[in-house]
Amino acid sequence: MSAQQVVEPAKGSAKGSGHRVVLTGLGVVSSIGLGATEFLAGLRAGRSGAKPISVFETSGYSHSTGCEVTRFDPDRWITNLQLDQLGRATQFSVAAARMAVEDAGLDPAVLREQRGLISIGTTDGESYDLDQLVEAEITLGAEKMDPAAARRVPAGRLSVAIAQELGLSDVEAVTVPTACAAGNYAIGYGYDAVSSGEAEFAFCGGADAMCRKTFTGFYRLGTIAPDRCQPFDVDRQGILTGEGAGVLVLERLESALARGAHIYAEVLGYGLNCDAYHQVAPNQASVARCMERALENSGISPEQVDLISAHGTGTKANDVTEVGAIRQVFGGHPPRTVSMKSMLGHSMGAASALGAIGCALAIDNRFVPPTINHVTPDPECDVDCVPNEAIEADLKVVQNNGLAFGGNNAVVLLGKYDTEDRGKALC
Fold first, then answer.
1. Residue 19 annotated as catalytic
2. Residue 346 a catalytic site member
3. 247 near 396, Cβ under 8 Å?
4. For the chain, what is the mean pLDDT?
5. What percent of the chain has pLDDT over 90?
6. Distance between CA 287 and CA 403 in Å, rounded?
7. Are 269 and 394 in contact (CB under 8 A)?
8. What is the DSSP string of 97-114?
9. Which of 104, 157, 243, 290 has its CA 20 to 30 A from that of 299?
10. How far is it, in rounded angstroms, from Cα 365 to Cα 88?
11. Please, which residues have CB within 8 angstroms of residue 30's CB and are 6 or more apart in sequence?
């Protein structure tokens, strides 16, 4: 069977009555690298994406460091759509999807004959364009607002533009607006669609671009760090805002095996909840319950988890609350718990999608990414955060946490696909 063909749906699976779902393609736009290969190298090296913000005017702020995407050439990845019709976040989303398709070895012409899902999470949509529109309205008047920018604003463009770029028509294209947990929400939605047989493939992830609105909001809350993000460190001062996109290709295991695809990891399950406890403060009991639901949905016990990719923002409240929830679920000796935001900054709706990609790469390449900028451990954050340098590790199960404002929590579990299962999967 050719590398582009996909087998017909099979009956049943190794888990329950649904199909097993695997990750076969990864697309990355991030401050530490473009594409899965660069992103992997950045995670291994503990590379920092922190630099002075240039995408909007920062005069008047006492500090303005962020994790901005540089060296991004949309012409390299977007060939069928007009770039001036796409906002910055949508350009990231479409480019990451194109990268993921190429990484998976899929032919869009073949995908056009199949039923699919595109599920992209976001916090801000195209708030960068909204910034420009509001500024024009205030300084020049509403009649001077750019109509092209106004047409770019709808958040639905983040997913619909992927379908348009790839020429896909038999797809559901949704944008999931659950803020910083949105990438995991999108993956969970894709997992259900592929596992149930409703879709033969899914492009899932998240995208956001840096904007003055979000930076200013966090700045006014007092949660922007001056120059670096230090999760779990006693001297941590907050987040660095970031940007980017992460898109993952999900497909049935039997489909991936039939076309000889490289399998990064298997999606084992996920958990969601929304406690509506507080607009910005996390709730420990709710976060713990979300992790428990993910474990239950995946058929995994806490002692089987080898690594947790924490939400790990580097704020005082988040880190203490999240570690408390982890210890509530996993006991006094939790798995290694790292924060990729120490390198990437907080990329908002892209955060948990990029975290999931980092988890898949860690499983596939047998290593644990570090938590950089770690100097002095906080006794209230008593976890092994793998400080400053990556370590080698054979990971079987990895948990990816996403926690958002309003108590929107989402946790995804990924597992190593054992090649010894190949014969059984094709039976």
1. no
2. yes
3. no
4. 93
5. 85
6. 8
7. no
8. HHHHHHHHT--HHHHTTS
9. 104
10. 31
11. 39, 42, 49, 69, 242, 244, 246, 344, 347, 350, 354
List the structure tokens of 164.
Answer: 């348009």
Give the C-alpha separation, 287 to 299, whole Å: 19
Q: How many residues in total does the chain contain?
A: 427
Residue 278 annotated to the active site: no
3-state secondary structure of 407: helix
Structure tokens at 76: 């390299």
DSSP sequence for 28-95:
EEETTEEHHHHHHHHHHHT----EE--SS--TT-S--EEB---S--GGGT--SS-GGGS-HHHHHHHH
pLDDT of 383 higher than 90: yes
Active-site position among 67, 180, 204, 385: 180
SS3 285: helix
Structure tokens at 107: 């032919």
Give the per-residue pLDDT at 73.
97
pLDDT tens across 253-292, in order? 999 999 999 999 999 999 999 998 888 888 999 999 999 9
Predicted pLDDT of residue 420:
63
Banded model confidence at residue 5, pLDDT cuts 50, 70, 90: very low
Q: By the 8 A CB rule, do 24 and 262 touch?
A: yes
Query: Which distant-in-sequence residues (6+ apart) come within 8 Å of 143 by Cβ?
Result: none
Question: What does the pLDDT read at residue 132?
Answer: 85
Average pLDDT over residues 56-71: 95
Task: Indicate the pLDDT class of residue 423, thresholds 50, 70 and 90.
Answer: very low
Token pair for residue 287?
């976060």
How far apart, in Å, are the Cα atoms of 65 and each of 225, 228, 233, 368?
8, 8, 19, 26
Exactly one of 19, 204, 290, 346 is catalytic; name it: 346
What DSSP string describes 328-385?
HHHTTSPPEEE-THHHH-B-GGGHHHHHHHHHHHHHHHTEE--B-S--SB-TTS-S--
Catalytically annotated residue among 67, 229, 290, 311: 311
Question: Is residue 32 pLDDT above 80, yes or no?
Answer: yes
Give the distance between the most distant pair of CA atoms in the chain. 67
Q: In whole angstroms, give the CA distance from residue 341 to residue 217.
A: 18
Query: 310: Cβ–Cβ under 8 A, 6 or more apart, which residues?
Result: 231, 319, 322, 323, 326, 337, 338, 339, 401
